[in-house]
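Continuing the series of single-chain predictions for the mutant panel. This is the parent chain; the variants come on the following pages.
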Amino acid sequence: MSGPADPAVREPKNAARANDQAHENTPRSTVNRLSADNVTLGYDQRVIAEKLSVEIPDNSFTVIVGPNACGKSTLLRALSRMLKPSAGRVLLDGQAIQSMPAKKVARTLGLLPQSSIAPDGITVGDLVGRGRYPHQGLLRQWSAEDERVVRESMASTGVAELADRFVDELSGGQRQRVWIAMALAQQTPLLLLDEPTTYLDIQHQIDVLD
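Parent structure:
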């Protein structure tokens, strides 16, 4: 699916052009919050991208575009630490993302994958609540704040009335909005969305972009 919210990657020079205007208006100290430095990405022996560098400026809405199968999802997987580059490194707040604790990354960076599979028998409310996991710990269990964030995330994506429904009973568009609600509930300053408007009708596409 293509459109204004379709993330992708072609080559470093294209990504740089897409971000030129954002760079002009963004303080230099925030430009490199999330970046890939000369990375090579692939699966097993199949190389998808070589010597790729990209910067995601903070406090901005960045779109990386490109044709199907050019490495869009692969780049997002690498930027979110789901895929380790075979060369080069991904930096988050100046640190190599692979060396950072998983929960620290999850409190800073969220990812909505292109396709997600919910556990069997899980309700909408429970799935969205999983977005709060990075904020839990031995000294901090489920709180009224978590409840509020989950409730607001479901309301903002129009799935509040589905809270008690099983996710596997929903339509494709409803499930997509539930996954978006979970990503919002994670409350990260950086959020990567891989084709977030998939399965959505035009009105819900506009709502998601808003």
